[in-house]
Write a structure and sequence with these properties.
Largest sheet: 8 strands, antiparallel
Helix content: 25-40%
Distance between the termini: 69 Å
Mean pLDDT: 88
CATH architecture: 3-Layer(aba) Sandwich
Shape: globular
Number of helices: 5
Oligomer: single chain
Order of helices and strands: HEEHHEEHEEEEH
Strand content: 25-35%
CATH topology: Protein Transport Mog1p, Chain A
Number of strands: 8
Amino acid sequence: MKKLLSFSLIFALFFVACPKEEEEEPPPTPPAQKNAIDLLPKDNEISGWTKSEAVRIASTGDELTAIIDGEAVHYINNNFKEAVFQNYQGVIGSSTVSLEVRIFDMRDTTNTRKVYKDVAAGGEQPWDNHPGVEGRINDSFLASYMVEFWEAKFYVRIVIREKSAAALDIAKTFGLNISAAIKE
């Protein structure tokens, strides 16, 4: 019995004398990776502009080719991960105008920079105060503007089917909103 009592006393002293281990906190969860669809402006995020069709998503080369046919090769060759296409509608003056947003997740900045260079048509102008790393405007179309930029792993193209200063401002506003969503 004395041995049991002595053993119990030694055992108790051992636990009192030993410092308690602090529980480790789990490592912080990394921020969620943005998906291209998360960057699309919501209805009326740009005042008066709402989605006019269901979003189209491509995650494979075949799906992308079905949406944009021969143009898909630039994105496929530069290792795209996903692309989203969303049409919007709004009013400029007294006319209903359509606008298309295309956002391509190119996996990393190297692929994004390459696709930005590859899809250049040659008639673009620099976009002053552009969002992203590089931005440009193509005003060579008869009845539309196209604005493009790239930021992080995303290449963004916006086409508005109206040729006016107000239309160009709307397209730029879409670009700025998308850029802000990328940075969030």
